[in-house]
Structure formats: structure tokens, C-alpha cells
Amino acid sequence: MNYRHAFHAGNFADVLKHVVLSLCLAHLNKKPKPYRVIDTHAGIGVYDLAGNEATRSPEWKDGIARILEADRPAEVDLVLKPYLDIVRAMNDGKALTAYPGSPEIARRLTRKDDRIHLCELHEADAKTLDKRYALDSRIRVERRDGYAAMEGLVPPKEKRGLVIVDPPFEHRDEMAHMAEAIKDALPKWPTGTYIFWRPLKDLWAAERFDTGLAEWLFDEEYATPENVLRVDLWVRDLEAEGKLAGAGVVVVNPPFTLEADLVTVLPWLCDLLKQEAGAGWRVDGALAEEDFEEDGAEL
Ligand SMILES: C[S@@+](CC[C@H](N)C(=O)[O-])C[C@H]1O[C@@H](n2cnc3c(N)ncnc32)[C@H](O)[C@@H]1O
To answer: Rounded to an integer, what is the distance from CA 298 to the centroid of its chain?
Structure first.
């Protein structure tokens, strides 16, 4: 387990994932009934952007930093508000040094009767996480394989809620694990919202995961096309060699408002976060379109 998220915290891929997570949680908050958040690959919860890893690899400067510094149109600001409020609160008007991971976003957006279950397999990271949230009785931290844990954690007793699956993609078969996990979980908890993060590095693998998942959901009648949303952002030509060019999430059972919110912010985000020619974005149902369009065209 060599992956260290601190090198990537706050980069464009984190921004997109965390905006989606914040919007899904804000939507769950619209109803008073409690819900459960299950984070299968939690990381350490909060990242120090002035720390050793983030200083050596300051990817956040081309991600969250650009967003905070930009003039944001009102309609974009409204969609980003749940996410940016957290980042601003953590930095309290000072220079940006603290960045929230998915557990911290969940902690800050959930209410007193909601529950959060965090899994993290890395020994030191699991200890950091456990220590960080020891005083919050709503949060349970387990040092455990997130996929194995997910099998037992769904359905949660609250019946409402969300699972976020955000593995490090150190292994070639990660997408297969994700597909197996949802095939086990969805029949047991068909109404949960599931967020799967995946890189857009191996385009063929990403396409196979997205369309395979969507086809399976429709074939098994767990979902109609409206129940699957794929969101991607790429900051340079996807075929270019070198650093990660693109990433996104596949959301099963998204809030009905998510697609419109993302279509509002993604053209702006893409324009702001692009690093080289060939940047783009898409929001679709995974089966609707196969080709990528360049520079922010809506598919
Ligand atoms: C991409 S990071 C998670 C970032 C976090 N979700 C966030 O958004 O802030 C992936 C994490 O998964 C952990 N990990 C790797 N394999 C795991 C497994 N099988 N089960 C649980 N955690 C795992 C890694 O140690 C790493 O901290």
C-alpha cells in the first residue's frame, strides 16, 4: 500500500469528487430522517497543504486554490457553496493550508442523528483517522478492507444514505472490485446513493466499467437511465503521456438535481482548471454517448 493521498489532495480530481459528494449530502439533508454515510476508502480526513507531501507535489494549486481565487459567477457559486463553505471554514479567513477529505466533508455536512462509517486499510492512516474522530460518537472508524466491509454494512438501518468508493487504483483489477461491490450491495440496498471514483487514464477500462455497470443496472432492472450519472473532467488531452489527465465519478441513484447542478458548474470548472489544450468535461448516463468532445462541449 504505497498510495499517499496527501500528494493529490485538493487537485482537480479531488475537487470534482468532493463537489459531487457535497451536493449529494446537501440533498440528503433536505429531509429530516437520519441517514448513513459509508466511506470505503477514507484516507486521513484532513490534509495539510503546507505539509511535506503537498509541498513536494502542490497539485492543489491547480485545483482548489484556483477556485478560491477566481471570480465565480453567482450560479456557479450557489452550486459550489456546500463544498466551498467547508474549505473556507477550515481555513478561517487565513491562507489556504487545510483541505477536507471525504470523511471531513461528511462530518461537516451530516446532522446529529446521521451516522458515518469510515474504512481505511493503511495502518497509520486508520490510526490518524480514528484519533481525529474519537470524540464524535456519530463516526465509526474501522481499519478494514472497504469492499469486504461494504458487504456487511449495507443496508444500513437508516435505509437512507450514501456509499462513496474511492480506491487508490494501485491494482489493475480495481474496477472489477468496484463492479463486484455494487452488484452485491445494490440488490440489498436499492435506494442508496453510490459514488464510484475512477481515473480516466485507461480509457478502455473506464468505458468498460461505466457501460458495463449501466447495462447491468438496466438489465437487472435496478435502475432506469435517470438513475445513473457519469461525470468526468479532464484538464489536458486524455491521450497525452504523463500525469493524470482526467477523472470522474459514476453515481448510482443520484439526487434528481445533480445533473443540472453539474451542467451549471462544469463548463466553468473546465475552463478554470484546464492545464493544456484538449481539456473537456461530460455529464451523461454512461450509455448515451461514446465519444469525448473537446473544450467543454456538452454531450
Ligand atoms: C484516494 S484515497 C481516499 C481519499 C478520500 N476518499 C478522500 O476523498 O479524501 C484511497 C485510500 O484508500 C486506502 N486503501 C487502499 N486500499 C484499501 C482497501 N482495500 N480498503 C480500504 N482502504 C484502502 C488508501 O490507504 C488511501 O488512504
So the answer is: 21
Q: How far is the CA of 41 from the centre of ligand 1 (A)?
A: 3
CATH 3.30.70.20 fits 5-284, yes or no: no
pLDDT per position as a tens digit, 84-121: 999 999 999 899 999 999 999 999 999 999 999 999 99
How many helices (H) and strands (E) are present in the chain, helices listed first?
10, 10
Most ligand 1 atoms within 8 A of CB, residue of 14, 20, 40, 41 to mutate:
41
DSSP characters over 58-77 = -GGGGTHHHHHHSPPPHHHH
DSSP lists the bridge partners of residue 116 as: 37, 139
pLDDT tens-place string over residues 154-165: 999 999 999 999
Centre of ligand 1 from the C-alpha of residue 210, in Å: 21
In the chain, where the domains are located: 5-284
| Banded model confidence at residue 288, pLDDT cuts 50, 70, 90 | low
The average pLDDT across 246-273 equals 97
Q: How far is the CA of 3 from the centre of ligand 1 (A)?
A: 8
With the most atoms of ligand 1 within 8 angstroms of its CB, the residue from 4, 5, 116 to mutate is 5
